[in-house]
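Continuing the batch. This is chain 6 of the set; chains 1 through 5 are on the previous pages. Same settings as before, nothing changed between runs. Recording input and output for traceability.
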Amino acid sequence: TAVIAIGQTPNPLIRKTTSGLDTDKRGCIITDEQGATSKSFVYAGGDAVTGAATVILAMGAGKKAAAAIHKELQNKEKEYDE
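Output for chain 6:
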């Protein structure tokens, strides 16, 4: 699932409707370096994580998250094959 958001602050509906998602005091989603959140198989980037920032940073976060998602899916596929 892709959530597309355009704005300067994270949409408060995200944290209200997604239990187990850690956020900071500003409501930004907390992620690791690859964009993984506290919820399994949920990744985030852009303004939802950093607050107001550049589109270049958001694109970079998306690229890192896509690579991490790909790796995670490959690992899950290997588990099912075993």
